[in-house]
Design goal:
Structural class: alpha+beta
Distance between the termini: 40 Å
Number of strands: 24
Helix content: 40-55%
Shape: globular
Largest sheet: 13 strands, mixed
Length: about 800
């Protein structure tokens, strides 16, 4: 029986080639889109789940708000981990990670290589996190000072072999520091929220504030004894604040209790984030890698489901629209004794055959577009990642599920035909309007219009970010990395570069308004005795006297620093937000702010006020900021105007090689660094556009098929109308208007849904566009034009046909 079903199904599919082609292509595109998005979503959800104790690992976070300043940090003090393990029974172990500048220079032969994926870690690191040892004993690998664990890639890169155990690495820590390789591990999985090539002993961490409970610079991870201990430990964190942080705060602030501090509207608390939530549900200052977003996972998960549903809807629509063509077949089968279940099974087998063919085509499409998808999504999938022993059963189950879902209603609908009725009047079956088919078309276009609106708004927001005046000049600015490699020659390099034609200005600092730059936050007060009511937390940037002119920052009051004035070493330039939060009004210049540390109080004279500029992402408002005249030779920035940039860079590299032989000359453009801050949004925009296009193509395939079958069913009606004098334009309008009505309904439904969804998305930005009516109008008009072009071709063809051909057999 089953063999007969397959033979009959194959014959029917070969006979109706247009129907078969439209369905296979539509289902294949839907399945391919679903597979790609599903791979993206599953990869995002898999982060950090490879650790054996993932369900018991949490990270401690700090939340400190003083006045209008807010610090939401993925950092704690160096003391938090040891204290929590010692005093609270829920904590089995802790491990801290510390990265001072985020990079080290590591020597290979007579050359220095810039290694960005470096960190200092506690000896307990490998007792908490799960990594595979290739050589060495991980349980004690980081116990001793001057020890380092390297990955397979790092070992090959520096020693040309994986077996680097016992070998020595030299870094630029405090001059030249040798480290012994005590273990080699496999490369860290890409789906982890941190990914390092070198793990150095915490004993060598270049940190100067050990033991300070309010100095937050360490990522602190805790291994709980039980998965149920997180809530209990969370309750203990307030006790930790009262016992350790409050006395530390009293050293520099007049403070009777944390309740007094909080009663002024301030905030101070710690919380815990499960490691499996960090990538998608945490976006704090100091994240160890750019986080993802659970919001985008939900969005793309919904898009993948909708694309697959649109493809299934096509199948349902085309199958039921063709019911008139299959009615006689059903009637004869039933008269010859076939049951309804037998007829339904026949149609389900056809559906499964179509889906099998579509799945094979979909796999081919995915293999073809994986490189493009990786470029758009920022992933690095290989074919073996998507198609392997584990995934193939799921793909086959997906094909079976789609085949049953897409074929169930048509099978139910077609198998319900009454034999006498369908044999008596073929034309009466399936030729009328179907509310279900109309509803499915509306669903398809509603989804497509929402995706079009989303793409337009994401693109507009990204354009706004690119074009917004940020308050500083980032055009034609070259940033020099690893500037500390110059040692005492840092000023010499700057001065020589400034003599090159095309170099206008230059500054030395590690603090720049882009990602991968230094940040430092401290609390200052406007009175010598600090209290919760007279203090603010603000960014403290160490700069030279050329910083403001290099970035064209606008002074609205006072003056810039001057290297010729020794008194400027105790001066400060504030931004407008800092002045406002301190309550100085319009006459801040000449006043003082105070920094308290223990029993020491240091005052700074306000010599200038700069106009607010966006030194963080446009997701965030402008926070208080103070500039201090102090050396910080971590990076340098040069403003250039050159028609031959490669030649200028070559000259700069030549100067570098003379002053820092053996050290790599590494640079980046500030524009690129700025754009890097919004790569997630850019990828979302690109993926939204790609999948909106895919959804529209699939919907149009279905609409094309429906238009073709509608025109076929109305052939005689069109012939009669032409004989009676109907014009071609009138007939085109007749055949198109019903479909355009459905698109109109889809627009009405899509607009409020799209407005709500995109309003929620834009809320993540402190600076954002206003959604305009034309965005929704353009999306609706696009849908109408696309539908008209799709349906119009079939309508013109039917309207232009010779009526004699359609009426010949009457």
């Amino acid at each position: 029986m089953l063999q007969t079903y397959f033979k009959t199904a194959w014959r029917n599919l070969k006979t109706n080639r247009m129907f078969t082609s439209l369905n296979i292509i539509g289902l294949a595109l839907g399945l391919a889109g679903f597979m790609l998005i599903a791979a993206y979503v599953l990869d995002e959800l898999s982060y950090d789940r490879f650790h054996a104790n993932a369900d018991r690992i949490v990270r401690a976070n700090a939340h400190i708000h003083i006045g209008e300043s807010k610090l939401e940090m993925a950092y704690t003090s160096d003391m938090m981990g040891p204290v929590l393990q010692e005093e609270y029974p829920e904590v089995e172990a802790f491990a801290r990670l510390y990265s001072a500048s985020g990079a080290k220079l590591v020597k290979k032969g007579d050359k220095w290589i810039n290694e960005a994926r470096v960190v200092h870690a506690d000896s307990s690191f490998f007792r908490i996190f799960s990594y595979s040892a290739l050589h060495g004993d991980l349980s004690h690998a980081l116990d001793a000072p001057n020890s380092v664990v390297v990955t397979r890639s790092a070992a090959i890169r520096h020693f040309n072999t994986v077996d680097a155990l016992g070998k020595t690495l030299e870094t630029n820590d405090a001059g030249v520091t040798p480290y012994q390789v005590t273990a080699v591990i496999d490369d860290m999985p890409k789906n982890g929220h941190f990914n390092y090539d070198f793990l150095f002993s915490m004993e060598n961490a270049p940190y100067g504030d050990w033991g300070e409970f309010l100095s937050h610079n360490f990522a602190t991870y805790l291994l709980l004894k039980s998965t149920d201990d997180r809530s209990a430990l969370q309750g203990h964190l307030e006790h930790y604040v009262q016992k350790y942080c409050l006395p530390a705060a009293r050293r520099f602030m007049e403070l009777s209790s944390m309740e007094e501090f909080r009663s002024q509207g301030n905030v101070f608390y710690y919380d815990l984030t499960p490691i499996t939530d960090i990538h998608l549900r945490s976006n704090l200052m100091g994240e160890l890698s750019p986080p993802g977003s659970i919001q985008y996972v939900y969005i793309f998960g919904a898009i993948s489901a909708f694309i697959l549903l649109i493809a299934c809807v096509n199948f349902m629509n085309l199958s039921t629209a063709r019911s008139a063509n299959r009615a006689k077949d059903v009637g004869i089968r039933k008269i010859l004794g076939s049951s309804r279940s037998g007829v339904a099974s026949q149609f389900l087998v056809e559906s499964l055959l179509l889906t099998l063919g579509a799945t094979i085509l979909a796999v081919g499409i995915v293999m073809l577009v994986i490189p493009l998808f990786n470029e758009l999504s920022g992933k690095s999938f290989a074919i073996a990642d998507l198609f392997n022993i584990k995934s193939i059963p799921f793909i086959l189950l997906l094909a079976l599920f789609v085949g049953l879902i897409a074929g169930y209603y048509p099978a139910l609908y077609l198998s319900a035909f009454q034999p006498l009725r369908v044999l008596k009047s073929r034309a009466s079956i399936g030729s009328g309007k179907s509310p279900l088919r109309s509803g499915l078309v509306v669903f398809q276009f509603t989804t497509s219009i929402i995706l079009i609106v989303g793409t337009l708004i994401v693109t507009a927001q990204l354009r706004y970010i690119q074009q917004k005046k940020l308050g500083y000049d980032r055009e034609n600015v070259i940033l020099i990395n690893d500037y500390h490699a110059l040692g005492g020659q840092s000023n010499v390099f700057r001065d020589q570069v400034l003599t090159l034609p095309g170099v206008k200005r230059g500054t030395i600092s590690g603090y720049f308004p882009v990602s991968n730059s230094s940040r430092s936050d401290n609390t200052f007060s406007k009175e010598s005795v600090m209290s919760p009511t007279n203090s603010i937390s603000m960014q403290t940037w160490r700069v030279d006297d050329q910083y403001l002119p290099t970035f064209d920052l606008a002074l609205i009051a006072g003056r810039n620093f001057s290297a010729a004035r020794p008194a400027d070493s105790t001066a400060v330039i504030l931004n407008e937000t800092a002045v406002k939060n301190l309550g100085f009004g319009d006459d801040a210049v000449g006043k003082k702010i105070y920094f308290t540390f223990g029993s020491t109080v240091k005052s700074y004279d306000i010599i200038g006020v700069v106009e607010d500029f966006n030194f963080e992402s446009l997701r965030d408002p402008v926070y208080p900021l103070g500039f201090f005249l102090e050396d910080h030779p971590m990076q340098a920035a040069f403003k250039v105007e050159s028609a031959n940039l490669p030649a200028l860079l070559a000259q700069m590299e030549g100067i570098w090689n003379k002053l820092a032989p053996g050290y790599p000359f590494a640079y980046r453009f500030m524009d690129d660094a700025f754009n890097h801050m919004y790569r997630t949004e850019r990828r979302v925009g690109q993926l939204s556009f790609a999948f909106a296009t895919l959804a529209i193509v699939i919907a149009c395939l279905g609409l094309f098929g429906l238009a073709a079958f509608t025109a076929e069913q109305r052939t005689k009606e069109i012939g009669i109308r032409k004989v009676l004098g109907a014009s071609v334009a009138g007939l085109i309008r007749l055949l198109s208007v019903d479909f355009l009505k459905l698109v109109g309904i889809a627009i009405v439904l899509a607009v409020p849904i799209a407005w709500w969804a995109m309003s929620r998305w834009l809320e993540d930005f402190a600076y954002r566009i206003d959604m305009k009516w034309w965005m929704f109008g353009l999306a609706g008009l696009s849908a109408v034009v696309i539908a008209l072009l799709t349906v119009g071709g079939q309508a013109i063809r039917a309207a232009m046909a010779n009526p004699v051909d359609s009426l010949r057999d009457e």
